[in-house]
Amino acid sequence: MSNEDFNKRLFKYFDDHQKDYIQRLGDAVRIPSVSAWPDHRSEVVRMVEWTKSLMEKLGVKVELADIGQQKLADGTKIKLPDVILGTYGNDKTKKNVLVYGHLDVQPAQVSDGWDTEPFVLTEKHGKLFGRGSTDDKGPVISWLNVIEAYQTLNEPFPVNVKFVLESMEEYGSDGLEDLLKSLKNTFLSDVDYVVISDSYWLGKEKPCLQYGLRGICYFFIDVESSTKDLHSGVFGGTVHEAMTDLITIMSTLVDDQGRILINGMYDDVAPLSPAEEQLYSKITFDVSTYCSEAGVKKTIQTEKEKILMHRWRYPSLSLHGIQGAFDGCGCKTVIPRHVIGKFSIRIVPNMKISTVEKLVENHVKQIMKTRNSPNKVSIKLEHGGNYWVADPNNPQYVAARKATVAVHGIEPDLTREGGSIPITLTFQEQTGKSVLLLPVGASDDGAHSQNEKFDISNYMNGMKVMSVYFQEVAKL
Amino acid sequence: MSNEDFNKRLFKYFDDHQKDYIQRLGDAVRIPSVSAWPDHRSEVVRMVEWTKSLMEKLGVKVELADIGQQKLADGTKIKLPDVILGTYGNDKTKKNVLVYGHLDVQPAQVSDGWDTEPFVLTEKHGKLFGRGSTDDKGPVISWLNVIEAYQTLNEPFPVNVKFVLESMEEYGSDGLEDLLKSLKNTFLSDVDYVVISDSYWLGKEKPCLQYGLRGICYFFIDVESSTKDLHSGVFGGTVHEAMTDLITIMSTLVDDQGRILINGMYDDVAPLSPAEEQLYSKITFDVSTYCSEAGVKKTIQTEKEKILMHRWRYPSLSLHGIQGAFDGCGCKTVIPRHVIGKFSIRIVPNMKISTVEKLVENHVKQIMKTRNSPNKVSIKLEHGGNYWVADPNNPQYVAARKATVAVHGIEPDLTREGGSIPITLTFQEQTGKSVLLLPVGASDDGAHSQNEKFDISNYMNGMKVMSVYFQEVAKL
């Protein structure tokens, strides 16, 4: 039977079983596996068990990997939920595709402003509302539904699949990086491709593949002026205030057009090649929709291409706030003794974290040299995460593009994300293989918001794309 | 009997009754009249009753003035404590001296770090520890002790005394200004002098009289960029961030030497006359003690005179903080949608609040003109309070200086305060007469801190100074 004939049967099978798929997703959403709530840890474990049981029913060999304990704010420790390592098929002649996903969800309660019970999957106008519906229970279950469909239709699966399903993603993926490093020469050693469906289309209509993420360097500027907070009436005018130094430093970092003012910060930014530039013009992206999503009247750039480039392929600097200063309502006449200014730089190819750190350090030192202040000023890279970028013309991407065309009838946009998904880079480093970000949800799914939803059409089409993607990868 | 002879008897009487005075202060401290705690309002009322009863025992005619209700944060209302209006003597040939003081205290609990029970007056090494001991129960009781001593010694009192004793001072003197305005043509109409003992010496050893207070203009800079907080990964680099505008504006307000950078801000500052300059050199003030009190290694100015002038007679600008930005621990990659920067300017003779407001408005407008930003920026004078300054050579001050010499054997320092006591100005405006700040506590009394105390020597000498002050005022 040709692929095309089989796919007709397969797609019909998916369509015929839509109700079952919705019910399965509903079963998963009903388990409130909120990783940020320690008192819900047993629900997270229940979600792991539920998934394990489904996988085993499908013949996936499952191993639960212990990743240690989580230290809570009050000092007590609780067990981190096990990571599911699944293996489906071990045919040496087939490609090994690793699927990553997560089973935990963001916190949610009706009082946050949900129109429905967040942990009851509710269908309205072709949309499935519920916490975790799109992030990331829907996509994870989709992968498993695909395996099930092949089995029912008695068709050999085109590839071997490995699963890494964690349950702390919404709380920083505690313990996962160490686990992946420890699996480098065992579970991960024979992986050919890694695919992750845990992100979203650029818009609501057109599918995309993502080939890049920005990294981040998060800085703390620490300024200490005295051993105690002072009264501005008594001491104002005679002491070197910490806030004056801090605000001055913070004001020298970025201009009104978003350009970073730190010397040398653009030196390592990859020049824009004509080929890359061409990618942008093809992308479907509506500037006014973007403005209304952000809730702004206008953006810094006006052209679509420029906006996308500044989200994805240029660095940016945001001033987040100040810890230790007066932040309440009303008037308080305090001179804060110790303030910490917080800002971060989104980094892009080919910036190096160590270089960024040095440039920022030098910049702050230079500024302080021009000031006559005895205050203790220090700058610290609190957190650094690298950018990630893939070649959107590499074979795995070509396979996914073909799969998208087969299902949606159009070429997917080739996009990036402005934020970070650190685990992407870890998978690339530990397998040494191509990683593909294959979103199936739409831009308005509201992953971390109230009324998170997953469109039924995206659920159904997602499974179809995943199926053809496996077939195309098998041909490589 | 000459004043000198009587004063010998009077001072001996004070010394002989030290134990009784300490016990009386202990009785007052035992009533936890915390005005900031609504659930303690009955204790505040009890303190009013206790004082009224003591005053009536001494023959002071007492009227309780209702000043209305206080609206709590939850919307409920509770009665404000009555203000005591007392009248002692009505001899038309005598001067009428109005004494202001307050019966409420700052919050206190052992867990704040007190070494003793805050509401049990505890004597250690000549110091009386307890909340309210120096602020302001000690001074208020001192005035009454003086009246009692004259009575016991059967000596006619040199002046008529009026009392205004409020019990909301530590919570913004709610209702008092309106009351004083309503009393302008009645209770206040025949007042000749106003005296307030509710502040502290400049140091621990040398008495002072205070003849000036700075005013304050507290500003909010409000910047709004979008309808929701944004993720810096997704939107950073493409939107005009509110924080960038705010931090830039805040960085243009004051330099590293405390000089205000707003055009015209020094135009109305009274020039320093040689006579005023001379006042500063005489003052006992130790720069290294000041530094250690502030917890700083060095001050902006190095000379004693310059430091005092910048605390008292020059304006200063302090940056207090930002509301609406990220102010917590750790890293949050937020682009805050709406931020409010807070700063205040301490104002001095002859600055006008309305001029200061206009200058700040113009400044912010000028800065924003140089920026290409669509964000909504507004500046608001949230609170304005005028400076106050008296002539330290006016007759009432001369009387208080003579009283200080008579008791302490030295001329008091003539000082100002850098902060504001708004009611001072109200008394001056409503009576049209001289107001004297006559501190009796020492600089290390810790009025609003843990372990507030009142030295027994200050308590005793304070009553002596008060007595001679009345005698000297009677001669004017």
Automatic annotation (TrEMBL), chains A, B:
Domain of life from the UniProt record: Eukaryota
Site feature location: Important for catalytic activity: H231
UniProt GO cellular component terms: cytosol
Binding site for Mn(2+) 1: D135, E170, H448
Key words, A-Z: Hydrolase, Manganese, Metal-binding, Metalloprotease, Protease
Sequence ranges assigned to domain Peptidase M20 dimerisation in this UniProt record: 211-369
SUPFAM superfamilies (alphabetical): Zn-dependent exopeptidases
Cross-referenced InterPro entries: ArgE/DapE_CS, CNDP/DUG1, Cyt/Met_Dipeptidase, Peptidase_M20, Peptidase_M20_dimer
Pfam families xref list: M20_dimer (PF07687), Peptidase_M20 (PF01546)
Cofactor binding note from Swiss-Prot or TrEMBL: Binds 2 manganese ions per subunit.
Signal sequence range: none
Gene Ontology terms, MF aspect: metal ion binding; metallodipeptidase activity
Active-site residue list: D104, E169
Entry keyword Metal-binding: yes
Binding sites annotated in the UniProt record for Mn(2+) 2: H102, D135, D198
Residues involved in substrate binding: D198, H231, T333, R346, S420, H448
GO BP terms in the entry: proteolysis
Cofactor dependence: Mn(2+)
Family affiliation: Belongs to the peptidase M20A family.
PANTHER family in UniProt: BETA-ALA-HIS DIPEPTIDASE (PTHR43270), CARNOSINE DIPEPTIDASE 2, ISOFORM A (PTHR43270:SF4)
Protein name: Peptidase M20 dimerisation domain-containing protein
Organism: Rotaria sordida
